[in-house]
Amino acid sequence: MSDEQDPAGGAAQPDKPEGPAASGSEAPDSATGEPAREEPPRLAARGLDRPAADPAEAAVFGRPGGVDGTFSARGGSNGRRSPSAAPPTAALAGAFGRPGAAAPDLQRPPAGARERLPDDDAFWDGNGKGHEDPWRRPETAVELGPPPEDDAAPAPEPTPGPRLSVREVLFGRRVEPRALAVLGVIALLIGAVGGLVGRYTVEGANSLTDPGATLTSTTDAKERPPGSVADIASRVLPAVVSLDIKVGDQGGTGSGVVIDPAGYILTNNHVVAPAAAAQGSTIQAVFNDGSRAAASIVGRDPKTDLAVVKVAVRNPTVARIGSTKDLAVGDAVIAIGSPLGLVGTVTTGIVSALDRPVRLDGEGNDVAVIDAVQTDAAINPGNSGGALVDSTGAVVGINTAIRSLGGQGSQDQGGSIGLGFAIPIDTARTIGEELIRTGKVTHADLGVNVRSVTDGSADGAQVQNVVAGGAAAAAGILEGDVIVKVGDREIAGADEMIVAVREKNPGDVVPIQLVRDGRPLTVTATLASD
Fold first, then answer.
1. What CATH class does 229-438 carry?
2. Per-residue pLDDT tens over the stretch 408-431
3. Does residue 390 carry a catalytic annotation?
4. Domain with CATH 2.30.42.10 in the chain
5. Is residue 125 annotated as part of the catalytic site, yes or no?
6. Would you call 23 a catalytic residue per the annotation?
7. Using CA atoms, how far apart are residues 485 and 287, in angstroms rounded to an integer?
């Protein structure tokens, strides 16, 4: 059949069959004698409806004259030949060229083909039909297949093997002797390395505890400049001793201060008084370095609560003596002694008050009154007789009494509440020197007994009685007079009048101001000796 178009653009009509077949009659088959089947008529291609071309467009886009196909062997209308492409290489032709005539045909054979394919064909069976594999049949409908099956067999669980004993390993010939030897060498090497490491570790640790080890010297971790509490304590402690008093099977403890290179120690009278009145009593001085020495009483003064004892010690450390006149309220002070038997105790505080009259427990009829330095440095029983030093390390007082909630006095057993009293060193030095020289001390005496009074606007000491032949009687002082001033010192009570008189010496002429019947009066008294 030819499907070429005619020049008018219509579709070419199919060739009409000739002979009997064309007329639709069945002609007999020459081989079988049976009439032949008439073939159905074939449809021709429908003609294309093409509109007439525009002459202007045809002149521009139409085929040149003499050209019937799409391409011409020659170039354009100018007559030049177009360059042709180079022939492909052998590799490209072999890869992408058409197969030769002897190559097998990959096209599916037509249905009803009479030639038989080999039985071992991988794609087609002997009947010209594809295998029943749905992947080989394009007309097979899409459907879900069964889940995949794990064809791999599960791995068997490992079972523990037989264990070998040491005997079987060594003598059962289960392990090669060479392997045993190598294993032994490795164990020996590991043990040797561990031993060396342990040895060096122990030697390094022993070097820190070895008595022969020396540590590098370093600077002091604390700064102790001159004048610090530590510096003052280191200089004063060797001059302060602890006094152990034993009377029979009883004992007591006090403190003392070395005031002379000959071994004289200044302390309180109430510290050594029990040993002075009892036979067979002993006094021992314990120095800061722990050494001990027997002490003997040189002299005592119950009215000022001072005493001096002496020890046979060569070149003892002597305390530096200061002056109470240089003190002011608020100055820093340090108390050193043996409170509660604790030797070499140091406490600090300030001067709380000056010229504080304090009445102490005296002996017999003697009244002990001191013009004390008050301090808030901790002072407890056992501090009595110890040193109160200033910021330069000089002794400015002898610690004597404390004020506690239980009462007042040197023998009070209450604890410190920050009210301590010390005898001014100026008074203590005078009394100490007199005791060393003569063993006793005499005091100035006015010859009166007084009590403290006030009228709401003024205070004073009222005379209760006048001793006949005494200094007061000679001066014209009468009972009922109120003494308000002795010398230059104002009198606010009985204790202050006593200490004001004892500051003077026997024979001193002292003006005394008093109030008699509401009128001020001044008399002159020549102090006698007690």
1. mainly beta
2. 555 445 666 778 999 999 999 999
3. no
4. 444-529
5. no
6. no
7. 45
